[in-house]
Amino acid sequence: MSAQTQGAAAIADPGAPYRRRRTTRGNFELYTWVFMRASGAILVLLIFGHLFVNLVAGEGIKAIDFGFVAGKWANPFWQGWDLVMLWLAMIHGTNGVRTIVNDYAERDGLRLVLKLALYAAFIVVVTLGTLVIFTFDPCPAGAPADLLPSFCST
Amino acid sequence: MQTHQYDVVIIGAGGAGMRAALESSKRTRTAVISKLYPTRSHTGAAQGGMCAALANVEEDNWEWHTFDTVKGGDYLVDQDAAEVMAKEAIDAVLDLEKMGLPFNRTPEGKIDQRRFGGHTRNHGEAAVRRSCYAADRTGHMILQTLYQQCVKHDVEFFNEFYVLDVLLSDDLTGGEVPDGAEVKVSGVVAYELATGEIHLFRAKSVIIATGGAGKIFKTSSNAHTLTGDGMALAFRRGIPLEDLEFFQFHPTGLAGLGILLSEAARGEGAILRNGDGERFMERYAPSIKDLAPRDIVARAMANEVRDGRGAGPEKDYILLDLTHLEKAHIDAKLPDITDFARTYLGIEPYTEPIPVYPTAHYAMGGIPTTITSQVLRNNTDTVGGLYAAGECACVSVHGSNRLGTNSLLDINVFGKRAGVAAAEYAIGADWVDLPDDPEVGVVAELEEMRTRPTGERVADVRRELQQTMDTNAQVFRTDASLRQALADVHALQVRYATVSVQDKSKAFNTDLLEALELGFLLDVAEVVVVGALNRQESRGGHFREDFPLRDDAGYMKHTMAYRRPLGQVAPAAVSTATSAGPTAAGATAAGPTATGSDPVESVGGPGASAPGTFDVVLGYKPVVVTRYEPMERKY
Amino acid sequence: MPSAPAGTLYRGREGMWSWVAHRVTGVMIFFFLLVHVLDTSLVRLSPETYNAIIGTYKNPVMGLAEAGLVAAIVFHAYNGIRLILVDFWAKGPKYHRVMLWIVVGLFVVTMAGFLPRHLMHVFGGE
Amino acid sequence: MATTATTDAPETSGAFGAVPSFDVTLRIRRFTPELTGAEAYWEEFTVTAYGTDRLLDALHKVKWDLDGSVTFRRSCAHGVCGSDAMRINGKNRLACKSLLKDLNPDKPITIEPIKGLPVIKDLVVDMDPFFASFREIMPFLITTGNEPTKERLQSSAQRERFDDTTKCILCAACTTSCPVFWTDGQYFGPAAIVNAHRFIFDSRDEGAAQRLEILNDKEGVWRCRTTFNCTEACPRGIEVTKAIAEVKRAMITRAF
Ligand SMILES: Cc1cc2nc3c(=O)[nH]c(=O)nc-3n(C[C@H](O)[C@H](O)[C@H](O)COP(=O)(O)OP(=O)(O)OC[C@H]3O[C@@H](n4cnc5c(N)ncnc54)[C@H](O)[C@@H]3O)c2cc1C
Ligand code: HEM
Ligand code: SF4
Ligand code: F3S
Ligand code: FES
């Protein structure tokens, strides 16, 4: 017998009445839930398009370099595309990770730390990404011409 | 030990207990003590329906219902009680609907009704649709609905608490309390399973609603937890048990397993066939055939098997045939029971008939009460503040054979009455002093049983009890078989005095509780057998092969079994009984001395079966006849 | 409330395992996305830095990782659609298992279309 | 120590034909703080069983013939009371609805308490948190206005609408199979939602808005990730995940 012995959590007083942790009602979880689905549906389009253009069409991953990226972002269409994708994916992903943190981080302190880190990452990444897309100069002065997209030389 | 004080304490959270709780907690401080979580009570297993003459689908009235109940019970029914039940049935069903019970509906949106065994139009003309139902889960819906209402009204529950003693102001077991003297209830002693702690509940009123005792038999539709606790507790305190020899064997239990297939199957058109494929009920009850009362059908089935016309390799069961019914109809009306056949026997009821055989199902007898659910301590005196309702009680509306669907009705009608009466009594009554150290008997018994180092195994004793009851006190009984059963029960009682449990811990010791429950079973079984031995006639669920006819001259009366000190032939109470017939004749046969067992010292308090100390003494109570003179029962 | 003592792994079926996969792929994609945005931001610094970093991606190991990431996205995306159907289509819960096999099928088809081309780019030299 | 029992009489085979017997080994996860301290451990028992035996019968043989201290709840023995949900070979099942022959008796059958509720002893868990969630969703008919004298009318179609969720026996098999419930035990759990569904879609009930509000909680329906373990586990065959989806949709319709 006793093939194996594993630890068991101590039992709280079985007579003690059970109390749910104080929680909040309201539509927040509802909206995020709907958002996950809506954003997911849109992201399918955006991400598949993105992947296709970057990895499949043309010469695939080999072709990616400054020139390629700059070439895309010179076009407001791709600018908009990537901007929406960035925002949707980041909100979707951050909210997804938030759920996961809520699920597994049981201690309140840990929960708080993880969520702060998550939101900080979100802000940094989204701000940075947005800035880059908008303030991006495809033909920076002084850069070697062979690295730049072809239209810079004109 | 903890002490609590409530105006009303209800023992049992089945249909009867919760129906009472709804009434009582509305009026006064009430606690419900149950050894199971309320929704796990066996009321939830009831399938077929609950009858009331709503006349939603065809002409019907409560008077016909009364007649059917009286006739179904082979005229041993107290007719005033049956009248009350049939009249209040209509409100009982409507009450449940208003509480939210999801009944099946007619095309007009009213509660649907279907046929059931023994329920007829115009005093037996033809089967009538009287049973209100929710598929084949009526009991489940009743239990859930009542629990939901209890949640709504914040009823206080003590779940997984076992009541182990009911405290009275006087000791009735001595047989010395004179008739007419005032005896009152003062509380109960309970055992908390989770911790092993003893709780003392002081109460002005106590309602016993602990359900049936089917586990005295081996093959039974009853839950493992239906061990006759309430009946045994009352009995040990000297309160009589009425008509316990009448036990119902339901015709259609899954063969070998005893799991019930509701009579609703036959109500919806299923047919019983023997091994030759013959619809044999045509021979036994030409007018209503498969829908005859249960005792008749069960006996007919047993008879077919005995005469070699059973089905199967061993020719030992009967077939319940649904194959001619529409699949959609089966799915809508009988989903659960067809599922049982699939799960437990691997039978597909659409295409194959289901093997069935009678199974111990329902105790017609129990703690005697008045029609206001007050417990009687003899033929006329009630115990102040003590009430009983449901299967553990005997009003008696079922007489010697209960009609299908009348029990769910019984628990609702008399559960409600008990709740109202107990609360009203408590509001007007004074506190009764508790006896000194009321818990010592229980504590001593528990401790002794728990710490006894070695001894008999509980399971062995129980197995043998169930086996002898199945062999000797089932559908067919004779003097010889019953004497055998009695001898066995007495021998087992002696062995019970030395049982030991293996689990020595305090928390959640179900081993210990099973041992205590075995004590209840032994007491109840003894009363069943003694009553059966004494009743030298055949009536309803009690069939004596040596006395195959009903004997109204000798036995048109209720049996009242008392626990009295050894050697005391007639208790004071019995002297007031109608004297016709062999008063206390069973007592001599019943004496443990007849089996030559040595007296064993008993533990404090009334304790478990105490062989050699107490005896079962019989008395009688007259049957109340209002409108219907006994006739021969023909269908 | 104390947690339950550890026991064996719960033997859930397709629904549970697809959820585990969805969760794992979701987190994978999220962390990749963080890195991806950061590295792409390097285009702001100078073409040289960007190309240098991107250059390090262009080795077979990273190529394989990239393939894994695409696999994760493809699964997460298709299964995401399955989840949306489970939520909003009345018969979704009934057919969730069938839909999972469709997801797996589409996943295989998509990857079959993508992988050869991608691996060719990765390993196929110039 | 592997203990073996060979009881002579089949507990349940009785009248129904001749049933072949076979040996099964039960590997039970035991937790007996009072006797062996706060460590759970495995113990194996071998018993002889018959073709129609349920796992509950085998457990009874263990308890009655080998070791009386093995503790579990049970009552009805045919799947209607909800007492004996446990984790059998890694899945939540009722012991009384699991036939041994369907459990592959060649290998030891592992039996553990349901997951996510505090274990009291062996297979017995503290059900209070479970019933607390049930009580929170107002599981009773809510109506306004005067009581009708006769029954409230309801068409068969209206009755059919919530039929599935009336079957619940509160066994907790679903809630304790849910990976989200295991995480912190705060999630209301599928059983509570099923019982809310039973009333939300009852044409006679007028409390739907309140119940939806309760389940709109952070720990309410939105925590469900449609893992379907609950549907898989429900011994009553209730389409639990579907019911949850219907509640979610009702909330969304209400919010937008
Ligand atoms: C399978 C089956 C099908 C049936 N079908 C029908 C039908 O279709 N129609 C019909 O009318 N009747 C039917 N019956 C009969 C009917 O269901 C029962 O007679 C009735 O439900 C009994 O209800 P009750 O409230 O008296 O007892 P129960 O529901 O059995 O409740 C007993 C309660 O007492 C508690 N209890 C017991 N002992 C103790 C103790 N020592 N301390 C504390 N608490 C204790 C238990 O926990 C439980 O809560 C059926 C019965 C069975 C077995
Ligand atoms: C490609 C299209 C995508 C679709 C269709 C999609 C769909 C979904 C859906 C429907 C959910 C909710 C699952 C649930 O509630 O059970 C979800 C969760 C999640 N998604 Fe996506 N998603 C996509 C892309 C992404 C991306 C790009 C990321 C990362 C940034 C991501 C990360 C996550 C995470 C972390 C979760 C939470 C998982 C969980 O809680 O189990 N998803 N996704
Ligand atoms: S929904 Fe099913 S699994 Fe869940 S408690 Fe109810 S009956 Fe049990
Ligand atoms: S298992 Fe849990 S996650 Fe949802 S589908 Fe069932 S409640
Ligand atoms: S014992 Fe009642 S459900 Fe298993």
UniProtKB/TrEMBL annotation, chain A:
Keywords: Heme, Iron, Membrane, Metal-binding, Transmembrane, Transmembrane helix. InterPro entries: SQR/QFR_C/D, SuccDH_FuR_B_TM-su. One of its GO terms (molecular function) is metal ion binding. Its main location: membrane. The chain crosses the membrane at residues 30-53, 73-91, 112-136. It holds the Pfam family Sdh_cyt. This is Succinate dehydrogenase. It comes from Pengzhenrongella frigida.
Automatic annotation (TrEMBL), chain B:
Keywords: Electron transport, FAD, Flavoprotein, Membrane, Oxidoreductase, Transport, Tricarboxylic acid cycle. Its main location: membrane. One of its GO terms (cellular component) is plasma membrane. The active site is at residue 294. It is found in: Membrane. Its EC number is 1.3.5.1. It comes from Pengzhenrongella frigida. This is Succinate dehydrogenase flavoprotein subunit. Residues 582-608 are annotated as: Disordered. The modification Tele-8alpha-FAD histidine is found at residue 42.
From TrEMBL, chain C:
The chain crosses the membrane at residues 20-38, 59-78, 98-115. Heme binds at residue 76. Keywords: Heme, Iron, Membrane, Metal-binding, Transmembrane, Transmembrane helix. It holds the Pfam family Sdh_cyt. GO terms for molecular function: electron transfer activity; metal ion binding. It is found in: Membrane. One of its GO terms (cellular component) is membrane. PANTHER family: SUCCINATE DEHYDROGENASE 2 MEMBRANE SUBUNIT SDHC, SUCCINATE DEHYDROGENASE HYDROPHOBIC MEMBRANE ANCHOR SUBUNIT. Belongs to the cytochrome b560 family. This is Succinate dehydrogenase, cytochrome b556 subunit. It comes from Pengzhenrongella frigida. The gene is sdhC.
TrEMBL record, chain D:
It comes from the Bacteria. The keyword Iron applies. This is Succinate dehydrogenase iron-sulfur subunit. Residues 158-180 form the 4Fe-4S ferredoxin-type domain. Residues 22-117 form the 2Fe-2S ferredoxin-type domain. CDD domains: fer2 (cd00207). Its cofactor is [4Fe-4S] cluster; [3Fe-4S] cluster; [2Fe-2S] cluster. PANTHER family: SUCCINATE DEHYDROGENASE [UBIQUINONE] IRON-SULFUR SUBUNIT, MITOCHONDRIAL, SUCCINATE DEHYDROGENASE IRON-SULFUR PROTEIN. Keywords: 2Fe-2S, 3Fe-4S, 4Fe-4S, Iron, Iron-sulfur, Metal-binding, Oxidoreductase, Tricarboxylic acid cycle. InterPro entries: 2Fe-2S_ferredoxin-like_sf, 2Fe-2S_ferredoxin-type, 4Fe4S_Fe-S-bd, 4Fe4S_Fe_S_CS, Beta-grasp_dom_sf, Helical_ferredxn, SDH/FRD_Iron-Sulfur, Succ_DH/fum_Rdtase_Fe-S. Coiled coil: none annotated. Belongs to the succinate dehydrogenase/fumarate reductase iron-sulfur protein family. Gene3D superfamilies: 3.10.20.30, Alpha-helical ferredoxin (1.10.1060.10). Its EC number is 1.3.5.1. GO terms for molecular function: 2 iron, 2 sulfur cluster binding; 3 iron, 4 sulfur cluster binding; 4 iron, 4 sulfur cluster binding; electron transfer activity; metal ion binding; succinate dehydrogenase (quinone) activity. Pathway: Carbohydrate metabolism; tricarboxylic acid cycle. It is an enzyme of class 1 (oxidoreductase). The keyword Ribonucleoprotein does not apply. GO terms for biological process: respiratory electron transport chain; tricarboxylic acid cycle. It catalyses: a quinone + succinate = fumarate + a quinol.
